[in-house]
Amino acid sequence: MASAKSKFFKVLGFLFLISAWTGGVLWADWQSPKWVEEFLAEEPVVPVAKFYPLDKFIISIPGDKYPHYLLLELALKSNNPKLKSVLDEADPLIRNSLMKMFSRKSFEQLNSTEQLDSLQNEALMHIVKVLVEHKFPSDIDEVLFTRMVIQ
After folding, report:
1. InterPro entries, from UniProt (predicted)?
2. How far apart are the C-alpha atoms of 75 and 73, rounded to whole Å?
């Protein structure tokens, strides 16, 4: 009989301990002190820019005596992680727009290193315009020329 009482008190003590623990956790959660919120708060995720390289372009450029050729490789910078599928779908539109833009430039305009920033901005505006006209998302932040060779 003593062992039955002993087991009963052990089980009762265990149930009391579990109940007290659960009650304490619920009470602490109900009180929700500031330090718990700060401890459990997640840091905001900073969006990381992604770079999407396009296939290289070879464009004929009119010259005074003979035609020149431009080899251009560029990448698009965006914070949109889903832009890759948009660029795959809109690739012919983007390439056509850029080929028209660069083929209207003269050899002197393209050969000047001071023109790189303005050419990148102009290319960005052309790409965004084409994407908007065809109802594609146009959240491109920057156009980067990764290689540019003029002959």
Report:
1. FliL
2. 7
